[in-house]
Automatic annotation (TrEMBL):
It comes from the Eukaryota. Keywords: ATP-binding, Nucleotide-binding. Coiled coil: none annotated. Residues 152-419 form the Protein kinase domain. SUPFAM superfamilies: Protein kinase-like (PK-like), SMAD/FHA domain. PROSITE patterns: FHA_DOMAIN (PS50006), PROTEIN_KINASE_DOM (PS50011), PROTEIN_KINASE_ST (PS00108). Residues 435-468 are annotated as: Disordered. This is Serine/threonine-protein kinase Chk2. SMART domains: FHA, S_TKc. Residues 450-468 have a biased composition (Basic and acidic residues). Residues 46-107 form the FHA domain. InterPro entries: FHA_dom (IPR000253), Kinase-like_dom_sf (IPR011009), Prot_kinase_dom (IPR000719), Ser/Thr_kinase_AS (IPR008271), SMAD_FHA_dom_sf (IPR008984). GO terms for molecular function: ATP binding; protein kinase activity. The lineage of its organism: Eukaryota, Metazoa, Spiralia, Lophotrochozoa, Mollusca.
Amino acid sequence: METLPCHDFDFTDGVNSQDGSQPEAWGRLFPLGSSFVAMDLTADEYTFGRGENCDVAFSSQAAKTHQCFQAYSKVHFKLIRNKTTTGTHTFLEDLSSNGTFVNGDKVGKGKRHVLNNNDEISLAVKQNKAYVFMDLNASEDSHLPKELVEKYTLTRVLGRGACGEVRLAFAKGSCEKFACKIISKKKFSVGGKTPVNLTSQVMGEVNILKALKHPCIIRIEDVVDTPEMLYIVLELVEGGELFDKVVAIDKYDEATGKLLFFQMATAIKYLHDQGITHRDLKPENILLATDDLETLIKVTDFGLSKFVDAGSMMKTFCGTPTYLAPEILLTAGSGTYTKAIDCWSLGVILFIMLSGYPPFSDERKDMDLPKQIMGGHFSFPKQYWSEVSDTAVDLIKQMMIVDPKKRITFADVLNHPWLKDDGMRTKAMALMYPDTDGMAPPKLPVAKRKATEGDEEPTRKRKSSKDD
Ligand code: ADP
Ligand code: MG
């Protein structure tokens, strides 16, 4: 992961210094692009730009060689701290011809915009993210546990999910970026029933996840546990959700779809080999490392769904069960399921990736959604599937066999003729293991586990996924 330059900048506490030698900081800028550096804001006004006379001159080698450098103005924008009748506010004044953007919206030359905590500043084009602004007076850091804020600064929300929000975090000192998942433990209990010994269960789970090591599975960096909340610091993934990508590009061409699918199947096979069932596979939980079409994928949001089980299953029942295996619907969520449920869900994902639409639809007049799923009523109409190979369709059909006992397993998915494609595999391995020229480390399938961790052996513990 890229570490952004901090120029020996050390955010040791909320203010710059306690001894009075420096004024107190009222704000902080965190770099989002690699040619920008972190800084504390103490003065009432700062100018930013290409010109040498700016308070913050974009004059580093990284800035000068950046593709947007020529598009910056000599003075591109100004930050102004101003006392007004409604209190003290921070303004961003756009002085550039190409524009300064706040959260993707152009401010416009000569115009001012009130800057709020966690606002993102982009320069010249909205994709060229430069900083995230942190208003130290408005930041909610005071609610965060000490162990967390000692090591990380939390900024804007990256995404929301079933059990809370995920925020961008910067490690203090190095400014390395992470994602911090914030889970309210209250939400774990459904219908007022708090499962006993929840914390130790959660921590046991987290320890299992910490021991997982696979390039296509989100790495857990750190965990801070408090009586009410759980903070999980994760490896940051910057390319967004697979779901949004499919929507944006309509559908994947078969070659690219195969490259991404192969990585997902490898990751889930690895999880299954560790005795872990994901249970919540859907395109929102597959993250993309970059914006490129051919990119590394990361599976997220696994394992922990066990603790939101009743809740998330209920949610799924109330919402659209698009990815839910038929056996879960058949038993209304109260049966014992095997890892075959993941295979079904990934089959649905592959269907969507290659066609751009889901296999089951609420709009179908003759049959409601659960009935379509439980009966396996889906098809591959020529008008949408004519460009997709029969082998790909065959794999989807095998993954979406209604009877879980007859459904293909992940070991066989990886041996399916569709994935016997050396060119694709070479590309996938290069994405997954860039430091070793696409060679997997010899002992890969077995996660290293510290003997001291003391949690149960995961294979046995998670043999079936519902009853544990
Ligand atoms: P939940 O269990 O609440 O569904 P997720 O792990 O799916 O949580 O996270 C919710 C959303 O937050 C994701 O869909 C994604 O948009 C974002 N997100 C989660 N983890 C990361 C990460 N490591 N890097 C970047 N964004 C993330
Ligand atoms: Mg999720």
